[in-house]
Predict the structure.
Amino acid sequence: MAVLGSVGDTFIASVAPLFMLSLGSTPFYIGLLTTTEHVQKIARIIGIRLVVHTGKARLMAGSRALAILPVLGLCHLAWQGTIGTTPVVVSLLLFAGREFIRQAGNTVWWAMIQDNTAGDAFGAFMARLRIRQRAASLVVPLIVGWYLGTSPSPGRFGWPFAAGILVSLLSVWWALGIKEGPLAEQEEGAFGQLRSAIRTPAVAWLSIFMATYQLIYSATGSMWVVALRNQGVGAMAFVWMGSIAALGQMISLTWWGRLVDAYGPRSTLSTTLLLKAGLGLTWLFLPTEFTILHVWSALFYLAWGILDSGQNMGRTQAMMDAVTEENQVAGFNAIMYAGSLGGIVGGVGGGWVFGLVSESTITWSGYPISLVYLAGIQAATFVVYLLSRKLAGYTDQTSTRDAVRSGMPPKAEGEPPA
């Protein structure tokens, strides 16, 4: 199911900014696109209400089936080929509609992960899942990028969208075969369950952690495509950067999973968050020469993929530790809602601010103000590192210094090869 989700998103969601740019979008609308990705998580309230009637697997399958409808609209919009503000806004609403429907099903994603893991060697399990997922993310963008070319017209996006529909149909069938555990009986409604979950200190601190990180990432990550396109990176090369990031994740997931299983999430989160903050400073040295620019972009995305896989592995383990089965569905979604709130603020604010600074000729110490913005906001990931020190079990887990001294732990049973 994870692989099918990655393939479908490559055909549809990953090319969304490029499609909107081909329709004449500005950075503001690209920022709004990022914001909608977080606003749509409000649909998980619907999922919490429905799951008691449908069960987890059928809720997932039904959402994937209904999410096909907005993609049909995207196909029509692409093949129509009209450029202007109205098509940009319509495409934004269709992308948002697809994700809104999918989020109702995603309500049960982490609950089903928890149902299908035994608890021991969790990092090894997630490494297997994500390596297969990233393998698809490595290959499919190469095909999509080659097909789109350097400066694709809107019509070129129609067939990738259609391919995404076929993948969605397959995911509907596949979802029905996933095993699920019983739902714990709840006396409270959806909002009551969320309130109870967020009052738990472990969930509350993880929610603050997620909200802060998503605010920072949404304010910068969605603007990378704009900054690189302005500098001369073509659409084909930009799509391929997704494959390079996936490669970085694939080559490091086994290591991160082994570290999390042996030492807990503390050292993994500390390392990846600090290095992500430092990586942001490289935007100050974004080159302009064609070849060097593409090499710089590839190295940036490779490093980001390595660090992101580690951070996600550590965060996932922290979530599993924080959420109990007594309030399973609401607990995971309380954390997701907090992240969405940060993403909403970061997406809107980042798109608006970057739209202003990208058109400005102001410099700071000789650096374009737009690159200073990207470097400064990403460097603020240091704040997220400080918040990670408040997560449950932090003082009981192995520090980064002690983990380095202990060296790489032995391979766990069932662990994929490095």
